[in-house]
Amino acid sequence: MAQSEFNLDHEISWFVLPSYWAKIIVGLISCMCFANSYDGDFVFDDSEAIINNKDLRAETPLGDLWHHDFWGGKLSSNTSHKSYRPLTVLTFRINYLFAGGFHPVGFHVINIILHCAISVLMVDVFSILLGGLQYSSKGRRLNLAPKASLLAASLFAVHPVHTECVAGIVGRADLLCALFFLLSFLGYCKALRENKEGNHFSILWVLASVLLGAIALLCKEQGITVLGLNAVFDALVINKLNIVELIQKVLRKDKSLENVGLFKKGLLFRITLLLSGGATMLCLRWRIMGTGPPAFTEVDNPASFADSLFVRAINYNYYYSLNAWLLLCPWWLCFDWSMGCIPLIKSVSDWRIIALAALWFCLIALICQALCSQDSHKRRILTLGLGFLIIPFLPASNLFFRVGFVVAERVIYLPSIGYCMLLTYGFSLLSKQTKKKKMLAATVLGILLINVLRCVIRSNQWRSEEQLFRSALSVCPLNAKVHYNVGKNLADKGNQTAAIKYYREAVRLNPKYVHAMNNLGNILKERNELQEAEGLLSLAVQIQPDFAAAWMNLGIVQNSLRRFEEAEQSYWTAIKHRKKYPDCYYNLGRLYADLNRHIDALNAWRNATVLKPEHSLAWNNMIILLDNTGNLAQAEAVGREALELIPNDHSLMFSLANVLGKSQKYKESEALFLKAIKANPNAASYHGNLAVLYHRWGNLDLAKKHYEVSLKLDPAAPGTKENYSLLKRKLEQLQKKGDA
């Protein structure tokens, strides 16, 4: 089978270590790079893929995972991105169950362990790619490039571009895909272990390799590309196929075609198995996904929406050059590269065309060397390096279908294998040419240390959304989404003034950014700047007529402006576009209550609780409205129903306690008041209303005590001062009678 006379290690000044020590060192440095992310928060896409994903919860049937996309939505939905990764979601679910909830530490630790395991496997993978596949007489695979494989695996382990996959929990899809991708490749190599006759291969291992490729595909879409790489490896390494020679013989219709290796025993059969497996996976994937393509918008991938084929082609190639630059110089990293971060190239006079020219100059030079070199080992290493660089990247290239991003660091996790392989080969060529081998080795060691430092810094930025979003401001200042996310993070922390600044900048950079308009409109609404809020929300629904949240918020503003008919119409439009919208029904109920349309209000709030049984505000409003309109029995029934569903909600306890007190069920009312106070001891109204209960009940000393606590918590508590004064007068009268 494959022989490997050429040895990169002869030219490389590097450490020679036993295989197990090499793996330990690679595992340790890979862990060192990202260990500080273990206690990070859920950040960016983690919210949608994990916290808001119902597929992680125990009440969701496991079977639903096979019909839902990565984000928990139905694959059949028009809004689905068609990202089908059920095995990745299953690992999230296991994390959630073992942690007993959404505790990020366990999620992060698993990601770090996965990257360490992948980095350790890379020692074996690179030993095959760089040294060839050869076995000892005892059937043990030989590592013919221990120094080169250690260097390449180290470069892979510490590459900063991997930070998003490791420190970002949703990056687990890429990690799991890479793990099974490598296992599939190693399994295929095991299938090609030769016997004494030199022509044996294991069908079972070939099938196992295809199965592992299918598992990789169920973790992330890139996984299927391992089948293509296995075929390339089989043809070039095992059968030593010379592509140029093959093409020449085909063109000349040479009768010796069967001698070039294509028809050697077993190759066509193995390729057929790989093709059949790949075709079966694609057919099943297509059937599960549905025939509709993923739904993306122009802001996700503006080049794919360009009318001109020239503009699309130029920009796609520019995106490729940016990915190559991130591999070469991973210093400027960003969590998101969309929304104006990379302006479109629209003419050949744009200076960025130079990047395209540089990329294709390097690629063409490498391809020519890979195809035309007289050195068979050079051809093999360059072809495999280019194969691992390009083939796993193809699903993200926009060539076969539109993708939902411009540049994404996570998608170059697998292609970085090819980059590390080519870089190691380049280092060996430099070592061969220079006499200062130790200086060159020190330079490479310095690059590794710099990358480790960059990984530590970058993984620290991924620990919290605030650090992550702010780190992007210097990298992509034109990215509206970056400003939006910084603003959202500030708003969540209560810093509305600073949030407004970033939301305005997001809208300035992208005048059609409806989500930024919606959030800015919300803040302005809370600050009672209703006219500007209405203008922003009206513009948002004009740009995106099916934006249900903006319609609801517009209704709230119109209600505040006392334009009730318009508000009602806005609410119903929101519900039309999102039928299961409990918050909108809640706000609609408030509108009807303001208009004294009590039956309509109760119906709206009831709809809200049907759609969301834990909607405490809707339950509370029903109880209060029924109480205020004298329907005490109905209010009591609704209150008891609500507490059965939300037994620890102190606001519901308080509302029901008020109803029970008016119904003269003092003992039960007292118990609920005390339970509510235990849950929220600093609520002045809880103490004040309990004092009123005691006052009615005749427990004047306890009434006095809780009136005083209420006034201490809130000296301006409405009604409490008057009630306390009445109680004191009554106590004085009782004291006078006692003295008489």
Automatic annotation (TrEMBL):
Residue ranges of domain DUF1736 in the record: 292-364
UniProt xrefs under SUPFAM superfamilies: TPR-like (SSF48452)
One Gene Ontology cellular component: endoplasmic reticulum
Subcellular location: Endoplasmic reticulum; Membrane
Pathway as given in its UniProt record: Protein modification; protein glycosylation
BP GO terms, sorted: endoplasmic reticulum unfolded protein response
Topology of this chain in the membrane: Multi-pass membrane protein
InterPro entries, sorted: O-mannosyl-transferase_TMTC (IPR052346), TMTC_DUF1736 (IPR013618), TPR-like_helical_dom_sf (IPR011990), TPR_rpt (IPR019734)
Family: Belongs to the TMTC family.
PANTHER family the record matches: PROTEIN O-MANNOSYL-TRANSFERASE TMTC4, PTHR44227
Name of the protein: dolichyl-phosphate-mannose--protein mannosyltransferase
Source organism of the structure: Gopherus evgoodei
